[in-house]
Structure formats: C-alpha cells, structure tokens
Amino acid sequence: MKNLSIFLYEWKHFTRSPFKIIAVLLYLLAGIYGLHKGASLYHKQHAAINEIEQKAAKEKQTCLNRYQGDSLVPSKEDWVNLAEPNWAIEYTQVYHHKSPSSAMVYSIGQSEQYGFSKKITRWASPYDDDLVEEIANPERLQIGTLDFTFVLLFLSPLLLLVLLYNIKSSEIEQGFMALIEVQSVSKNSWLVTRVLFYFLLVLFTNLLLIIFGGLQTGVFTAANKAFGQMLLYSFSYCTFWFVLFFFILQIGKSIMSNTLKMIGIYFVFAFIIPAAVSQYLSIQYPTNLMTEFADAKLEKRWQLWDKSDTLRLAELEKLFPAITKSSLLKNNDKRSTAIQESTSALENRLRKVSIQPIEEENRIKNAFISGTFWFNPVSFFHNRFNTVSQTHFDNYQNYRNEIQYLIDKQIGFLISEMWNDVKVDKKKYLEYDQKLKRLN
Amino acid sequence: MWEIIKNEWQFFARSRTLLVTSLGFVVVLLLTIFLGYRQTHEQTLRYQSAQKHFRTQWENNREMHPHGVVHYGTFVFKPANLSSGLDEGINSTTGNMLKLEGHVQNEITHTEASQTQAISKFGKLKGSLLLQYIIPLLLIFLAFQSINSEKQSGRLKLLVLQGANLTKIILAKTLSVSIYGIALLTLSVLAYAVLNLKTLNAEIISRTLFLFLAYCLYYFIVSGLTVYLSARLKNTALALTSMLGVWIIWTIFLPNILLSSVEQWHELPSRVAFKKAMRDDRSNGINGHNSSDGRLKELEKKLLAEYKVDTISKLPFDFWGVVMQKDEEYGNLVWDKHFGNLRNVLAQQKQSYQLGAILNPFISLQNLSMGFAGNDNKHHQDFLLQAENYRRGFIKKLNDKHAYGSTKTDTSDWDVKVGAAFYKSVADFEYQPAKLSSIIPIYLIDLVILIFWMLLSVSLLIFGSKKIQIL
User: Fold this and answer.
1) Chain-chain contact of B57 with A282 (C-beta, under 8 angstroms)
2) pLDDT value of residue B95
C-alpha cells in the first residue's frame, strides 16, 4: 500500500516540475514529427512506384498496339523488330520495386541510401547507377533524419535522464533522506517505485506514439507483426537504460555527480562505442571503391566484345548447353545476330563475378558489426528497428538479389527464345511480360 | 582579472577528479586523432590505387575509333581530403565513384554508408565528434562546478564583500573554462598537424585557423551561458539541468529538425521526376545515334549549304563527329539546367539552415567545421563540377578527333583510330579543392552569427551579473 502511495505521489512530483513536463511534451512532439517523416517517405515512395507503373503500362499499351495492327517496326527506330524475342523482351516493361513496408513510419533506416525501383533488362545489374538513392541533401543525410527510431534511440534515454536525474540525490542534498527512510518501507523499494513511475510514463508515451504511427500508414492491417515487434524492442531498449540509470541513482549521492554519470554513460553507449566501431571498421575495411565492378563494366566488357563470334559462342554453349542443338547454328546471319544478342549473358556473368568479392566484403563488415552488438546495444537496437520497418541493409540486399534473379531469368528466357527462333506475337509478348515479372 | 584566471587554473590543477578526467580525455582525444589520420591514410591509399588502375587502363587502351572511346569512358574517384581525419563531413553519405562517358552526365554512386548495416548516427570517432559534442559538455560541467562551488562555500559572497567586482569574477571564470576547452582543441590540432607535417601548406593552415576560431567562439558561448545560468539561478540543480537541456536541444534536437524542415521548404525533385524532366528536354536536341532524327537533318542541310556541297561525304570533315559534338553540347545545356537547379535548391537549403544558427549556434559550428575541413556539400558539388568539366573536355577532344582527325574527305571515316599517344595526351583528372577565398563568403554568415552569440554571452555576463543576488 505504501508503494502505491509513493507511486501515486510521484505523479504530484511530476506535475509540479515544469521542466519535466516540458521534456515529455518535447519528446512527444519529436515523436510525432519523426512518425510524420516516416509516413511521408512511405507515401512518397508509393506515389513514385505508382507513377513508374503507370508509365510502364502506357509503354506496354503502345507495344500491344503494334502487335494489334500497327507496324512491328517503329518508324523512328527502324532497327527494331518486335517480332524478334530480343526486341520484344527489351520492350517489356518489367520493373522490380522495393515497395515500402507500412512499418517504415517507425524507421526510415537505410532507405535513403538505396533506390527502390529498377527496370529489369538483360544489361542491368543490381549495382547500376539508376539504382542510386533518392535525391537528398547530403548534409541532411549526414546529420540524419529525425525519424521515430532516432527519437527512441537517442531521445528516450535523455528523457529518462531528465525525469530521473534528481531522484534520491535531491532528498539527500536537502537532508530529507533520513526522514524518508523512517517513513518508507525501505530505501530501495522507495527508489524502485519512484523510478518505476517514470519508466512506465516513458513506456506509455512510446505506446501512444507507436499506435499513432501505426494509424498513419495502416500498420495494423498491413504489418501487424511490426507493431508487436516495435513494442517489444522499444520496451527492451527503455529497460536497458532504466536499469543503468537505476544503478547510478542507487549509488549516487549528489545531483551533479548523478547527472554527470548518466550523461557520461549515455555518451559512451550512444556516441562513442558506435563511432569507435565505425572508425575501426573503416580502417580495417576502407570504403570499397567498387573497382572490380567498374572493371567488369569497362575493360573486361570490351575484352569480351573483342572476342570473335566463335569464342563467344563456345562460352555461351558452356553456360547454356541447349544452344548446341539450335537450328540457328546452321544459318550464318541468324547465328551472328543471336551471338551478338546473347553476349548480354556473358556480360551478366562478368558482372556477377565482379560483384561477388564486393558482397563478400560487405558480408564480412556486417558480421563484424553484428559481432559488436554485445557491447554496442544502441547499434543493435538501431538495426532491429530497421529490420522491423524493412529498411535494414539485409532488406536491400534481398532486393538486390531479387533484381539479379530477374535479370538471370530474363537472360535465360531470351537465350531459349532466340536460339529456338521463336516469333513473337501479342500473346507471346503478354506471356513475356507476365513471366519476367514473377519471382519464381 | 588575470589573477582570477590564474587562481581558477590553480584550483583546476588541484582537483584530482578534473585531472584524472582530463588525462583520460586527452588520451582518448589523441587516440581519436591518430585513428582519424590512419583511416584517411588507408582511404587515400585505396583511392590512389583505384585512380592509378584506371589511368593505366586508359593509357593502355586498345586502338579505337574516337566515338568508341566516348562510350568506353573512364572512372574517377572522390579523394579523401587531408582534414577528413578531423571532420569527415558528408563523405560517408556521398558516393565515391563516378563514370565519365559521352552522352550522359552520370551521378556519383556507391556510398560508404550503403555498404554496411547502420552503425553510428553521429559518424565515425573523429576529432569533430569529441570537439563538437563532448568538450562542450565537459565545459558545461566545469563552468557549473566553478560557480557552484564558490556559491556553496560562500567564497563568492566573501569576495564581493571584500570589494571584488562580480562582473570581473564571472567573466574571468568564463575565460578560464573556455581556455580549458581551447587547450584541448589546441592539442587536437597540434597532434593532427604533427601527423600530417609533410603535407601541410598555407591553404590547410589557414583553413585550420578558421576552424580553430569557430571552435573557440563556440566554447566561449557554452562556457559563458553556463556560468551566467549557474550564477543567476538560485536553484543549482535547475541551472545545471537547464544548460544540459539547452545542450540537448542544440546538438541533438534542433539540427535534425531544422535541416529536415528546410528540405521541405526548398523541395528537391524526386529522382523519377528529375530523370523524366531531363529525358524530355534531352529529346528536343539532336540524337547522334538516330539518323532519322529531324534536327539532325536540319543540321545536315545547314552544313551542306554552308560548305556549298551536295552530300555529307564532300564535307571537309567527318559529319558524324560534328553531329556527336552538337549532341553533346545540347546535352550539356540540359545537364546544366537540371543539375544547376539541384545545386540552387541545395544552396537555398544551406542558406536557410545557416540562418537557423540564430536559434542554435551549434549549427554554425558544424557548418564551419565541415566547411573549413573541406568536406561539406559545397566541396562535394565542386568535385562533381570539376569532374563534369573534365568529362566535357575529353569528350570534345574525342569528338573533334572524330570530326577532324581523318585526312580522308571522300566519305565518313569510321576507320579513324586513336591510340596510345592520344590517350596519354589527355591529362588525368585531378581534383583541386576549392580555395579558402571561395569558402569564406559562404560561411561568413556562420562566423557572424557565432560572433553575435559570443557578444550576447558577454552582454549577459556583464549586464546579467549586476542582477545576481549574492548577499
């Protein structure tokens, strides 16, 4: 009963402290602002994807009109013949998007570092220039966006600090402690109850914000698991700080020393450790300048095209043994065109080989970062929040893998259709369009 | 006043806690400076190796038709600045690799931040992290402690009763605390200078001096405000927490909110809209790779009339080389218009953000630090412009070779080739960081605002100290 009165009395303490009320209000405002930023980016990306799809549908209709009666050879591009599989496939409008999750409202994460829409062609690669990030102010990117994750990660410990810094030490400094010890159940239980009040206040504030965010983008219908995960991780994160701050309050005897310790520990976990890990990583693995990839797109590509038809055909036959049975091999003109068009498969192989070491280095770097999570909790939670909102590096790596899969599929399809001398009509074109979009 | 500063420093020197904290901090600071230097060094080695690789590839390129070389192109890389070890600014969020080729102005790609999962929201452990975030916090505690201990022990009362001038005491305490920050700053700058002794030049030294000045002003502002609040407010806890609140709002809260808001006031186009607008404008020009293009026919007619011949094969140059250069020049106008618009919007965003420093001097400090370190958006845009000018130069050289490189005039000569001598004649791309003189006008407003804040602090200390109730 005494604990309950202490708990309820803390409400009075809180309401009589304008500084603490302002801190909670500022936190709420920052949370709402962060959620608005996330929701706004979510809607923006959706709108951009819709625009791309609408444009693609228009282009597709133009092609279909050609199959329905217009010329299969566009007047301005007399080298194009849509009856040929290579041109028909080239003119399919296959886009692969990374549709934003409705949970993006909680964390913008790394979404501003990558593109989210890619036209799939046989010459494409998941590291192409057209897959670069959305246009943004680099100085803003460096400072970071104030999204909800930022609020949780960096402002919630500060809010806890502001709410807790003078508990117990204020009583000690004013000489009330002995009186409290006489009146209260026990010093520890008194402290726990008071601290718990603020802990629950922060949790409740977070809960309100998470619900508000969920309503912005329809998290409850589209990604209800994300809501539960956000609650769980935000609870765990606040508990981590709560425990640290509680021990400081328990040991500390003065406001000044407690504040210094709290802010010091905040600095260590929120600034120093993540920054030190980042610094160490960039010394061990300096930024990859992607020279292998650039080589594959430049010199090695030219070396490939310098090769004779015979050599390229031999390489193609190794990759696609079915070519050896093609009737086109007997027709010199058609064989040459088919080799020319199929060389995209060899280029694709070159690019894939060049990407491997880059992705391997990224994998090692990420494994290293994950290995630091046991002493780097802020980065751990940061990445957890990004995973929940599907804006984590791995989500974009999966997206790149899917792009590569669709490129491979398109190339495999092209080789099969070309070397079987297939003629494309409207039905076939629609079949290409459908099949080449599917991730299975 | 000098006497008070001397006493204050003697007091600092006698405080074991402060000595141990300072010693520990100096070790961390020096280690950070060393690691920053190492990281810049490693990155520079990678950059040099990549640049050398593509230069060798360029010089040893096969014999090709000039237009083949236009498509072959080359790559350039953004180097790390010497001061990146102190403040790397935006480097980890901008790309590093840029393909230079004909018909298109590519964008810089593959940022460092995109190569790993999220690590640090506040960047790497560079000198700037400690100088901008931690030292001011130390100064807040030190300034608070300096006044608070005097108040609690009753010494302040005693000094005033003995006839000491309170304003002088307060100003001296502000200076003493600021000097502590400046001493740490000096140590960082000296350590960095020693590590980079071989590459120091007048430009870098001048930049560092401006950077130094910006930090000194900021440290004075933070110390002054804390001393003022600590002296003015009766409730010591409130004084400390108020200043900590100010620090949180200045360093964590406001920069983020202001820059995000500024991005909404001066909106950048979406990538889809940007590309579409360029494509639309580009389609109004000559298409060198489409012989049925109407504008190309017009050019043909014009040149035939000018040279009074009836077919392009009778022109005294290769018609297609001229077409390619015309195509390129039209493209340049389009890129200038659209990329120019982007640069204008970014400049407007920067100016609005700089004005935000009226509310928050930390914004000016960050701007000045990355600006004088040569790692702000202005330097990034300069790099992109220099790379683009280089691209235009070497594409024109190739198109001219295409048009006028052949002695044959009877036919369009796609057999003309360029080889080793030509490749070597194209100078390698060398990025020249913007001169300090071009940076100062951009950051003058930040310096003025910091000075304004400093004067405000001094005024508060002078006029505010008269209202302090000591007795």
Assistant:
1) no
2) 80
